[in-house]
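FW: tagging you since you asked about this chain on Friday. Here's the raw sequence from the shared folder, copied in full. Didn't touch anything.
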Amino acid sequence: MVASPISNAGLIEIAKKFLDFKYIALDSSATAYTTSQTGPLNEITSNGGQRSMGSATHNASTGVVTITKQFVFTGQAIVKAICPMTSGTVGQGVMLTRYLPAAGQLPDSFNDGGSLLVTLTCSVARPA
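HL: got it, structure written out here
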């Protein structure tokens, strides 16, 4: 079998698949991420932190997909991880990853009136 590189146009088309992960779930668990996880470990479902759809765009010339979502909290929420999902329903959909920001990048908790802007930038590239 001979490996053949994907065309530039093919990479851009494949990157569009990231548009399916436009639902953002917040997770209060600081447990380390493993690739066998299928969703948030302790999904936030109240106080403005419930899973919701972000705004997704695709740059047709670069293939980069950007997904943004601003959460405005109506009560206390402890956010430790961010999970892009394919469904807006808790317990459903496919998770792309469970991103755990480095220590100090998020406050210990968000309170009523606090907000969190999530911006995800996704692309596909050939291995180096």
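FW: The beta strands are 23-27, 52-53, 55-58, 65-72, 81-85, 115-122.
HL: agreed, and The helical segments are 8-15.
FW: great, closing this out.
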